[in-house]
Each structure stands twice: as structure tokens, then as C-alpha cells.
Amino acid sequence: MTLLIDDENRVRTITLNRPDALNAFNEALYDATAEALLAAADDPEVAVVMITGAGRAFSAGQDLGDMQERITNPDFVQGAHGFPGLITALSQFPKPLICAVNGVGLGIGTTILGYADLAFMSSTARLKCPFTSLGVAPEAASSYLLPQLIGRQNAAWLLMSSEWVDATEALRMGLVWRVSEPDELITDARKHAEVLASRPISSLMAVKQTMTEPAKPEIAAATARENAFFEKLMGAAANAEALADFHRGKS
């Protein structure tokens, strides 16, 4: 199973479950996560959703094997939701969303934090947006959401440098709200999730909608800009070289 789902005290925990692939997103995981968010949105017994990862990673981002196949295989089969559907599900999710970053987070494993209402991070975890090292554009409306969340210069470094950011730096930036010791992360995140889940769902949703509604047109516009650049850059020289280096490293 690419996802594990657990319900307790009106908190639904969604655990990305491709630990051997460091929870990298392939089409199946994009689809399963989007479906899980849509189901949680419609479930009257779910007040809060928490996303975390199985094993030592939160998510290693896009599965680069999938990216390579998308470029080279004309018969590549996209998922029913795929990456665009996951981003839509995140941007439209009407209830509190908590991320518990238990290990490395690359790409969407970092940019998903732009959609989190609260983000918790293990003190040993690290985050990276590897877009320039892959020769591609930003994704997931991160070009809009991250400057809003952490300020222009922090976002510029994160999106342009392709360098790791540790938990101390992520907290300083405001990329995450709390840092916990590894064995306390889920307990800490759940404790706060259950405080929220004890409140009326209708009120939680009203608060979230009033906070997020103004950003929705900006998210859509940023996504369109990013997609246009991504289409132009994916498969171009810098991206092809980066993917070739990746595959040489695996062989």
C-alpha cells in the first residue's frame, strides 16, 4: 500500500508509505494522496488531517525514474489525478492540514509546507528544493506560497540554491512551526492536532476558508506560470544532464 490511513479522535493521519523509495511520489502515490485528501474533506468524522512519512524520509519528492520515463516514453501513463490533481486537492482542502516532517523532504516534500496550516519537523530532518540542480522550474505554487510564508529572501535561497536546510534554519525561516526530537515528533504534532480537532468542524472550516480564500487565485496563477516554465525546461539540456547524472549514480 502506498498510503497508510489511521483515524483517532477526529484526526486522520495519512502516512506516505514507499519507504524503500524514500516516499518519492510516483503517479500511484500522487493519486492515492489526492484521493485521501478528497475523502477526508468529505468525511464528517474527520476534523484535521496530518501527513507524515514512513521510514527515514518524509518524501524525496518526484520519483526521478518517473520523470525520466515521462520525457522518454511516449506511452507514459499519467495518473487519474497525478501531480496537478494533488496540488488542487491541497489548495482546496477545507480543513486544518498538519505536516509532520519526520525525515528528508525534497521538492514536494518541502513545497507541500506552503499548504500546511501547521508544520512540525524532526530535529534530524532536512529540507531541500532541488529545482535548479535539476534544471527545472519551481512547482506547487511555491514561487508564490514560500515568499508569503517565509519572506522573499528566505524563499529565494530555498528555491534558487538547491541547498539543504536543517531544522534549526527551517524554524528560523518560519518554514515550520515547531521542531521536536525524532521520537517525540508524532506525539507533539498529534497533541496539537487533537486540540484543533476538539473544536467544531464548521468553525475550523470557516477560519481556514477566510484565511486561504484570498490566496486561491494567486495559487492558480503561480501554478500556471510554473507549469509553463517547467514544460519549457523539462527535457532541455540542463534537465537531461541532471537526470543522466542521477541514473549513472544509480547504476
UniProtKB/TrEMBL annotation:
InterPro entries: ClpP/crotonase-like_dom_sf, ECH/Chromodomain_protein, Enoyl-CoA_hydra/iso
Cell compartments where the protein resides: Peroxisome
Gene3D superfamilies membership: 2-enoyl-CoA Hydratase, Chain A, domain 1
Keyword Chaperone: no
Predominant place of localization: other
GO MF annotation list: delta(3)-delta(2)-enoyl-CoA isomerase activity
Keyword annotations: Isomerase, Peroxisome
Protein name: Crotonase
Species this protein is from: Mycolicibacterium aromaticivorans JS19b1 = JCM 16368
